[in-house]
Every structure is written in C-alpha cells, then in structure tokens.
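Input chain follows. Return structure tokens only.
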Amino acid sequence: EIIIMMDDDDIYHPNRIPYQIQPILNGNADMTVLQQDIWLQLYPGDIRKESKFFKATPRMAQSVHYGTLAFRKTVWDPSRDLVYTNASLFDEVDFYKKVKDDEGIIVQELSNNGMHV
C-alpha cells in the first residue's frame, strides 16, 4: 500500500502518481518526492495580471516540494516517531526530514519533469 500526498492548491500532471510510485513498486525506494524546478504565480481575483511560470533558482531547485510525498504505508511508524506532527504548517517538512534521516528507509528525490507546479 502506498500513500500519496496531494497539496490542495497545487497543479499535478495526470502521470504524476505512476511516475512517483514506479520506484517504490520496483523496490528502489520506500519514499519518493519531486524536486522543485517550476513555480506558477497566480493572481486570483485580479484579471489585469497574467499568471506566469518561473524557473526555480539554483538554490531552490536543490530542494523538494514536500506536498509531493509518496511512500509505503509501512514508512508511517508512530513507534519510531515517523508521523506528522500536530502542526498545520510544515508538518510534512518535519515528517520528510525524519524519514530521510532514517538509515533504514530509501528516499528518492525525483526530477519534476513537469509533474507538479
């Protein structure tokens, strides 16, 4: 069983889920996450401003988008504190960092390839 995180205010390519779960199904990863390389600036409510796509800065491109976590259900382990905190902000960041630091879990950071904005 695989858990897929979907951030409610993001845009996903229809092939994002197959792209992310393939390394998990192949046994090459326990968790995957997409790198940040594209940003979309929207101006809701202001029709005078056109939405724009931006390429991430080199520093930002080295980070991941925490709203794109995909992981085996077994990664979620309360006995090892591998769960979300009781925070409404940055809870997935804390979870990801704890999982990434765990030596028994294989995490793959995948190229975005247009799967997420």
